[in-house]
């Protein structure tokens, strides 16, 4: 498994597209999980990079977190706003780890408050999911072509140009 920091070092092109599109969409992404009946679920989420990890944290009691607690596999997609993907989009897939470090959770809540004003300080986390990335891709349109960058752990990024 590859942590966020390791991923950004191994796949800088995809990481740049992911972070740029994530920020442009107000930090909104779409999270795919597997429901208890085996069907996929798509949910909005605002993942956060904190202490060199990509975190999936949110409202307590949500079904997307119940999905991840049962089956840790996920796919995370930047919110695509343009069908031509002129600004690009990116997908990450991997697994989550539920981290039970209350000191780190307190630091996360403080950092969130400092950065956004959203105050969850002092609240207990149902789940505090760090991600391990097992693959990623991005797509960026150019003049008459689409560059698709693909990455898997242990391999270099590779670009496939579609005309």
From TrEMBL:
<protein>
    <submittedName>
        <fullName>Pyridoxamine 5'-phosphate oxidase family protein</fullName>
    </submittedName>
</protein>
<dbReference type="GO" id="GO:0005829">
    <property type="term" value="C:cytosol"/>
</dbReference>
<dbReference type="Pfam" id="PF01243">
    <property type="entry name" value="PNPOx_N"/>
</dbReference>
<dbReference type="InterPro" id="IPR012349">
    <property type="entry name" value="Split_barrel_FMN-bd"/>
</dbReference>
<feature type="domain" description="Pyridoxamine 5'-phosphate oxidase N-terminal">
    <location>
        <begin position="27"/>
        <end position="109"/>
    </location>
</feature>
<dbReference type="GO" id="GO:0016627">
    <property type="term" value="F:oxidoreductase activity, acting on the CH-CH group of donors"/>
</dbReference>
<keyword id="KW-0560">Oxidoreductase</keyword>
<dbReference type="GO" id="GO:0070967">
    <property type="term" value="F:coenzyme F420 binding"/>
</dbReference>
<dbReference type="InterPro" id="IPR011576">
    <property type="entry name" value="Pyridox_Oxase_N"/>
</dbReference>
<dbReference type="InterPro" id="IPR052019">
    <property type="entry name" value="F420H2_bilvrd_red/Heme_oxyg"/>
</dbReference>
